[in-house]
Design goal:
By secondary structure, this protein is of the alpha/beta class. 40% of the residues lie in helices and 19% in strands.
Length: 290
């Protein structure tokens, strides 16, 4: 089990950091009381599942429970757990600006002035900062840059890749709610009106050939893939970890299935992305499937 403990100054970006770790496949818990770490670690160590990466946020929001943080870390050391302590910080000026923008009080000075709370918190976290495995100053980082740093520090090579989910669907059943990009391919030749193809799907070679061998399909695929290939790096730059490409025809069984499979294969040929394909409505259309 790989364990990352996230701590640091309030307003330094712990929420964004834990979201980035979640995108990397970590099981994340925010505001974990330190006195529960021993039991929490034991539960996951004994569990018969595939949870191997865990991230916990521990900070001064825990109040008096936070005083036991060193006791919890000593336990992890004694049990030889593989863990890293990530400490996030920023300058006073930046922290004050962030609190002003969010209109929130400081947890160590909820009814007083923000600078006073920052001073108290720095003092309280001084020893914890001293034993941190990694320290990140977020003063000059935006959300995307912080995510990139977290990925570089804690991600595996495969975690860097954007997950592209290519989905086929039928417009008669509605547009997928989670779609990021929707493409209507109802202008392509329709196998439904070919008697010997109607009862097959876009998985079948004869339907695939009918759809893909059309000159208009060939030109469309060239232009559509060229656009997607252009867009994907910019989605990665913006910090997106999951993208849904929805390709729809009338019933979601012939054209959209063939096109989704073809697009997934082309995107998968680019080693920078992970690809998943699903066909939402392929079994919903009436008629026999091969």
């Amino acid at each position: 089990m790989k364990l990352v403990i996230v701590t640091g100054l309030s307003g330094a970006g712990k929420t964004q950091a834990i979201r980035a770790l979640e995108d990397l496949g970590y099981f994340c818990v925010d505001n974990m009381p330190p006195n529960l770490i021993s039991r929490f670690a034991e539960l996951f160590n004994e569990a018969d599942d595939d949870v191997q990466k865990i991230a916990l946020v521990m900070d001064v929001r825990g109040g008096r429970f936070f005083d036991r943080v060193f006791e919890a870390l000593n336990y992890l050391d004694a049990q030889d757990y593989n863990y890293e302590l990530l400490f996030l910080e920023a300058t006073d000026e930046v922290l004050i600006k962030r609190f002003k923008e969010t209109r929130r009080g400081h947890p160590m000075s909820p009814f007083g002035r923000i600078p006073e709370g920052i001073i108290k918190e720095r003092k309280r976290l001084e020893d914890l900062r001293g034993i941190a495995s990694k320290i990140v100053d977020t003063s000059d980082l935006n959300v995307h840059q912080l995510k990139e740093q977290i990925t570089n520090l804690f991600g595996d090579t495969k975690d860097y890749k954007l997950m592209v989910n290519v989905m086929s669907f039928g417009f008669k059943y509605g547009i997928p709610l989670d779609a990021d990009l929707v493409m209507d391919v109802r202008f392509l030749p329709n196998p439904h009106y070919v008697d010997h193809l109607r009862n097959f799907s876009g998985h079948d070679e004869k339907v695939k050939e009918y759809v893909l061998n059309s000159p208009v399909t060939d030109e469309f695929l060239f232009k559509y893939y060229d656009m997607i290939k252009f867009l994907l790096p910019y989605y990665v730059y913006e910090g997106k970890s999951h993208l849904v490409l929805a390709i729809g025809c009338t019933g979601g069984r012939h054209r959209s299935v063939a096109l989704a499979n073809e697009m997934a294969q082309r995107i998968e040929g680019n080693q920078n992305y992970r690809v998943n394909v699903n066909h939402r409505d392929i079994l919903r259309t009436t008629g026999a499937l091969k």
